[in-house]
Amino acid sequence: MLQWLVDGQQVNQSNNIIVLNEPLNSTYLRSIITVNEPQTKHLSSLFCFSFNSVGSAGKQFWVDCQENSAVLYFR
InterPro entries recorded for this chain (predicted)? Predict the structure, then answer.
């Protein structure tokens, strides 16, 4: 199972936010999130969280949105 959060809120599929999950094989999954809505602040956070029967993992990204461009930071 894989979930995305934008600014701490669970993502729901819509015209503004699109999530595409693509199985690469029986073990790996590629997930791509596209955010098409203007953000109310310059710095937003994206958090990807996955879990299954053997464990869980997560990765947080910071997105600095400026006019017609975005910079992605992760840690």
Answer: Ig-like_dom_sf (IPR036179)
Rounded distance between C-alpha atoms, residue 5 and residue 10, angstroms: 4
Q: Of 19, 20, 70, nearest to 44 (Cα)?
A: 70
Cα separation, 27 vs 65, in Å, equals 33
pTM of the model: 0.72
- What is the domain partition of the chain in residue ranges? 2-74
10-57 tens-digit pLDDT: 988 887 888 989 999 988 888 888 877 655 566 678 899 998 889 999
The amino acid that residue 33 corresponds to is I
Torsion of CA 24, 22, 4, 35, to 10 degrees: 130
Rg value, the chain, Cα: 13
